[in-house]
Design brief:
Radius of gyration: 20 Å
Number of helices: 9
CATH topology of the largest domain: Dna Topoisomerase Vi A Subunit, Chain: A, domain 2
Oligomer: single chain
Order of helices and strands: HHHHEEHEHEHEHEHE
Number of domains: 2
Structural class: alpha/beta
Largest sheet: 5 strands, mixed
Strand order of the largest sheet: 4-3-5-6-7
Strand content: 5-15%
Helix content: 25-40%
CATH architecture of the largest domain: 3-Layer(aba) Sandwich
């Protein structure tokens, strides 16, 4: 493969942008850029349009915070979901991982991160008020705290368990099986299904 300095400036700029994607190194970015160069002009134009419209077309569900193309996401609109169970995740990107596990059929709530003093993120920066409002409706019987298993994720789960404890509400945590410090976005379906099945009560 050519050294990137040998590429035209336009190709070098594209490689630079692709390198900003998570998990994409310089060599992978070069291969992707060269692959795009082989696409028909019409396909490239459609691809560019999709990228340009991404922030405009992808909305946030007004109920749970999941990615959506309407005010409510497909999960919140689904009448077959268990409405008495809510799984709390850090980011919307983690929801598809739970869905692939096939072991969960309730609803979700996206926090928008976790408590992280080192990064200047506290409870006020998370979607806790909207979660509390959902709980006040009285229809939710179990709250599954599925924050990551690292120190900040555990601290966030402990804070939520303390803040949201209420009579008649079971607050649980994913069981062992998810490696300590793991980002749930990268957990495999079988491991996550096992962790869901053996979830434990938060005290």
């Amino acid at each position: 493969m050519l050294d990137s300095a040998a590429y035209p400036q336009s190709l070098q700029r594209l490689i630079g942008w692709l390198c900003r994607l998570p998990g994409i190194g310089r060599r992978t970015a070069e291969r992707l850029a060269l692959a795009l160069l082989e696409w028909p002009a019409e396909d490239l134009a459609h691809f560019g349009e999709q990228v340009a419209r991404l922030r405009q077309d992808v909305k946030t569900c007004t109920i749970c915070g999941n990615f959506s193309d309407t005010d409510e996401c497909v999960i919140c609109r689904n009448p077959r979901r268990q409405t008495d169970m809510v799984c709390v995740v850090e980011t919307a990107a983690q929801i598809p991982v739970f869905e692939r596990s096939g072991g969960y059929h309730g609803l979700y709530h996206v926090l928008g991160g976790r408590i992280s003093p080192l990064h200047g993120k506290g409870p006020d920066d998370l979607a806790i008020p909207s979660l509390r409002q959902r709980l006040q409706a009285g229809t939710i019987r179990e709250l599954i705290l599925a924050t990551n298993s690292d120190v900040e994720g555990e601290a966030t789960a402990a804070f939520l368990a303390s803040e949201l404890a209420a009579p008649g509400l079971s607050i649980t945590r994913l069981a062992a099986g998810v490696p300590v410090g793991a980002d749930l976005s990268y957990a495999d379906a079988a491991t996550l299904a096992s962790a869901l099945g053996g979830r434990r009560a938060m005290r």
